[in-house]
């Protein structure tokens, strides 16, 4: 290619260069200004993070400045008269001699800043304490039924099928009289606390004084039946008995210190005594069943605290008269002064007419 100044002057005139000179100056100034901006941006990039650096992976390497750490002051030497420290035993790796063998960068580093070489905290074995469960809140009846009144330890609640069982149950083993003598319940009765308290109050207040009037002291109560998960009168399909709710007691007799026994359904027991027991029982219990109520209570007395509408109560116990001492084998002879039997006379007349053919 042949190029010369003469030809160039033909292509670009001097006027064109003069016109382009201001543009070239502007470009040079702009390049200088951009260079200054690039330098300041580079300096700012060292401290600020732009969101597009990580996007394109062009994040420049940032040299980390050397962190200067202040020397940790050492504690004063331990006085000679100071007592021995409990934790004087330390691992050999944490003694000052061992610390001198570490690297210079690590030697100037505080012990708190080195998690790998930090002294493990001394853990004391956890004190094993027995698990304490909150004691159940005692009912008012349970608090009142103390050992000064009855020997009746509490037993767990019973929850059976069909509502059988109950809560606040006790095992009535004995009744403590005011003179500290005990009336043993044989066998021990499983009852609700309120029923056991009613039995204890009845024996202490009514039966014990009655036995004293008869010339002896009461020592035992014959428990015929207490808690039993069954229907009324043990009839299949019958409603649940109060025995099934631990709310009833069947009493057959009381034992005396003299060795005798007072059977509540025995006709040979004085009638006045049995009537007194009847009235005291009907005044304390909502249900009293004995001889004459049905065929199921001819040999014992049923007591319970069943709650009914309008506080309805049942007291069915016939106190029968004593049986005669000697039963007559033959009827007594007819007295002579007795009038003639009209029935026998009519029978004789009818028989005579029949024989005569009338």
UniProtKB/TrEMBL annotation:
It holds the Pfam family Extensin-like_C. Residues 67-136, 330-358 are annotated as: Disordered. InterPro entries: Extensin-like_C. Residues 81-92 have a biased composition (Low complexity). This is Extensin family protein. Residues 109-127, 333-358 have a biased composition (Basic and acidic residues). It comes from the Bacteria. Residues 140-316 form the Extensin-like C-terminal domain.
């Amino acid at each position: 290619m042949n190029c010369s100044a003469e030809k160039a002057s033909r292509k670009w005139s001097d006027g064109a260069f003069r016109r382009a000179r201001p543009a070239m100056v502007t470009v040079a100034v702009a390049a200088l200004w951009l260079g200054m901006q690039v330098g300041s941006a580079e300096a700012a990039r060292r401290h600020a993070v732009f969101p597009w650096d990580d996007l394109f992976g062009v994040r420049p390497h940032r040299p980390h400045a050397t962190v200067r750490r202040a020397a940790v002051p050492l504690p004063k030497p331990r006085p000679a008269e100071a007592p021995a420290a409990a934790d004087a035993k330390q691992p050999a790796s944490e003694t000052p001699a061992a610390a001198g063998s570490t690297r210079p960068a690590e030697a100037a580093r505080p012990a708190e800043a080195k998690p790998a070489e930090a002294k493990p905290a001394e853990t004391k074995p956890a004190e094993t304490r027995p698990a304490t469960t909150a004691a159940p809140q005692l009912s008012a009846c349970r608090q009142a039924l103390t050992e000064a009144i009855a020997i009746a330890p509490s037993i767990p609640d019973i929850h059976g099928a069909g509502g059988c069982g109950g809560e606040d149950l006790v095992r009535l083993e004995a009744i403590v009289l005011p003179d500290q003598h005990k009336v043993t319940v044989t066998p021990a009765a499983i009852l609700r606390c309120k029923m056991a308290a009613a039995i204890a109050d009845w024996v202490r207040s009514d039966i014990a004084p009655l036995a004293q009037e008869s010339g002896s002291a009461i020592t035992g109560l014959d428990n015929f039946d207490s808690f039993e998960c069954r229907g009324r009168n043990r009839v299949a399909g019958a409603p649940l008995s109060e025995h099934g709710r631990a709310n009833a007691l069947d009493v057959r007799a009381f034992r005396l210190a003299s060795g005798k026994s007072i059977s509540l359904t025995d006709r040979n027991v004085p009638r006045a005594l049995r009537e007194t027991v009847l009235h005291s029982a009907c005044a304390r219990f909502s249900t009293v069943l004995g001889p004459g109520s049905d065929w199921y209570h001819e040999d014992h007395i049923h007591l319970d605290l069943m709650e009914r509408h309008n506080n309805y109560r049942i007291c069915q116990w016939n106190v029968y008269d004593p049986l005669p001492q000697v039963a007559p084998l033959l009827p007594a002879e007819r007295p002579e002064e007795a009038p003639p039997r009209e029935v026998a006379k009519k029978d004789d007349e009818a028989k005579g007419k029949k024989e005569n053919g009338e």
